[in-house]
Structures are given as C-alpha cells and as structure tokens.
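Let's practice the habit of predicting before peeking. Look at the sequence and jot down your guess about where helices and strands might fall. Then scroll down.
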Amino acid sequence: MKVSLHSVSYSGFFYIGKPLSIEEVIARVAKYGYDGVELMAKRPHASPIDLDSKTRRRIVEEASSYNVEIPVLASYTDFSGPDEFRRELNILYAKEVIKLASDLDVKTVRVFAAGMRDVDPSIPYWRQWELCRDGLKEASRFAEEYDVILALQNHPPIIESYEDVLSMIDEVGSSNLKACIDPELLLWTGDVDPYSDNIEEDLRRIYHRVRDILVHVHVGDSIERSGKFIWIQGGGGSAIRATRLERVPLGTGLFGRIAKPFINTLRDIGYDRYVSYEICSPRYVKHKLVSFEDVDKEVRDGVEYIRSIISS
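Done guessing? Here is the structure:
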C-alpha cells in the first residue's frame, strides 16, 4: 500500500491562510514522506479550465522531479436535480476532468453521484437515482474513450451506503466505473459501528464484497458531538437533537477506533493501491478555525500515523 495526500487539505478552505499551489503541495508531500498526491479537480488546484497544455506538462515534470505520483484526480460531480442544463454542465465537467487525467497520465478519477449536499427535495429519491445513473453512464463512456477509471465514492446523498455503490456500478454496466469505499463514510452511513465488538468482521465482510472493484480509499477522522435542537412544529415542545460530526487529527477520533482492523482488512484482500489522507472539513479549537500551521502539522503527523498502522 502507498500513501497519498488529497490536495484539498491545502486548498485554503479549512484553515486560516492562503491555499498552496499545486507545485507547493507536491514539494510538501515529498518533504513529509508521502508517495503521491491526489489532486482536487477544481479551483484553486487542478481545475481543467485553468490548466493549458504547457501547465499540464509542467505539473507532470514537477511531480516526477520529486518522485511523487499523482494516482487520482478528485472530481466533484453532481448529476442530480431538476435542471437539465446543470446536469449537462456536470457531464461536460466530468469529461474535462477525464481529459485532464489522460494528459497528466493519471489512471483514476474520483466521482460523486450527487455532489456532497442535500439534493432537491421536490424530486423523489428514485428519480434522483435515475438521473445520477444516467449521468454516470455518460461519464463512463468518456472514461472508456480515454482509458481512465472512474471511482464512485460512497458519499451521500443518493449514495447512502456502500451497497448503493455496488448497485449503481451494476446498473451503469461499465467496466470503467469502479469503487472508492472510504472507512469514515462507512461510519457516517451506519454500515459499520465503531463501538461494535465485531469491527474487523464487519469491515472484512464489506471489503471482501468490493475487493474486485476497489481502486481507491480515503481516510480522515472525526468525532460525534451533540448538535442543534430541531423543534417540531406543533409538537407541544418536542424536539430532535441532531448529531454534529467534527473533524479531529487523524487517529484521535472514530477512525482511530477502526484504523488497525481497516488496514488489516485491506491487506487481507490484497489491496496494493493508495490510501489517501484528506483534511476536507473545518476544525475548530476554542471555537476558532485552525491555522495553516495546525493543518500542516496534521499533514506531517498523518503520514507517520498511517505508515505506523501499515507496518504494525
């Protein structure tokens, strides 16, 4: 197994400070001992509209000079919703990311079915599923043309379980659509209970089912905290207490409870691709967003943590 860093970690989205350039990210992951970098296929990093042919060649040369691989481009596709033209734009975006992957000699593009936020509630779930399936079918045809593999991540919405990833891949019916099954998302969606006495058994059951189509995984960490009260209208004072997921340094939260059995499971199924560490949500200390220096330390400590689990 190899270890990569998702460049979203240095995007400037989740800390106080400026984003690093692609070249700066490559230099940093090399310095900290990562084998590769997963490039975020949107601004401020690898947005296809910003990278001309000369820049694309320079990125390949820069990565090669540091002996850093680019195993995956992370796209942010969303094929859901009632707006046909918006879905068309997402198909076009997917095609451009696939073309960028081909130019950078990247073999895999991570895709979402329906983005990362709630879908339009005016459309029934099954219709949303059909729209996402149709979008992924079109994207898969482009992937076949450019000899690129799409990795469908088990990320809600619409994809509410790893089971949905398997169903979607089956219905799309393309050998160029594979799976990206992240352990933290297995916790979020309830596919795995981090407090169970059978964690390793549960992980083995899931990853053995996907072993032949698993091409990428991400790791990150979070804790569950009590969230806001949602008062029920007309409920006579009734309320629901939401759960808030809060990001923490790798190994100090829920992922820390399953890290070793997770790596053992990957080893058991013969997985020899990348484990990609991502810092993809904000972290607050004393209700203040963390600094660039805090995130930089998390990146440095993260690769050491992952390698310590792999080697144990």
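How did you do? The longest helix spans residues 125-146.
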